[in-house]
Amino acid sequence: LRIDPNCAWSVDTSVKVGQDLAEELSKGGYLEDPCVGLDGMAEVRRRLLADGIDTPLASNVAVTSFGDIPEAVRQDAVQIVLCDHHYWGGMRQVQQLARVCRTFGIGLSMHSNSHLGVSLMAMAHVASATSHLTYACDTHYPWQSAIDEIAEGGRIPIVDGCVTIPHKPGLGVSLDYDQLERGKERFLTCPYRKRDDEAEMRKHVDSDWTRKLPRW
């Protein structure tokens, strides 16, 4: 079981969930960014350990660069870094991150990414070439529509949770330029240029909804 409240919980709520779901989270699961910041994560970790609960805390919010790692290690705030080959500087940098994590006894995985086939294959390649990948990668790829796919041949198959690495040069995929052109046309006609979660929540959930952390 993996739970990601996106920093929406207080420290107290994070600890309570960790206590209540200790058994479920003990089987290779983790809590991902339950609360805001390294200080809060470290307090959750200390309180859970004091109760004999060794549920790891994962993050792609509190630790987003190499400069964040020393403080995360000092406080024992994050036990799993959820990296992204786009944000961490590319595939070689992810491999370097893996070496750093292995040195400090930190787990490593890759966080969910709203990508298409080219990015998914880059993720799969770096994952297969990184020995210190201690948790299976997350991805939002199954949510993407086939109409959006720009890889030649259509959507990349995921079978039993696995992606097959092609025996081809580079990432093993080619661009479908007709699909790329259709994607460009859709982009130009789309009225949205900036992500606005607050507006979407007001539209679909609660007209008075405002973003605040912690929320619970």
Word description of this protein:
There is one protein chain. With 216 residues, this protein is of the alpha/beta class. The chain has a domain at 2-145: TIM Barrel (Alpha-Beta Barrel), CATH 3.20.20.120. Helices cover 38% and strands 7% of the residues. The chain contains 8 helices and 5 strands, in the order E-H-H-E-H-E-H-E-H-E-H-H-H. The protein has a 5-stranded parallel beta sheet with strand order 1-2-3-4-5, covered by helices on one side. Helix 5 (91-104) links the parallel strand 4 and strand 5 (107-110). Helix 1 runs parallel beside helix 3 (37-50) and helix 5 (91-104) packs across helix 6 (117-128). The two termini are 21 Å apart. The model has no long low-confidence stretch (mean pLDDT 94).
Q: Unreliable runs, pLDDT <50, ≥5 residues? A: none
**SSE pattern, N- to C-terminal:** EHHEHEHEHEHHH
Inertia-based shape: globular
Distance between the termini: 21 Å
Beta-strand portion reads: 5-15%
Whole-angstrom Rg: 19 Å
For the record, the CATH class of the domain at 2-145 is: Alpha Beta
Number of strands: 5
How many helices in DSSP terms? 8
The share of residues in helices is 25-40%
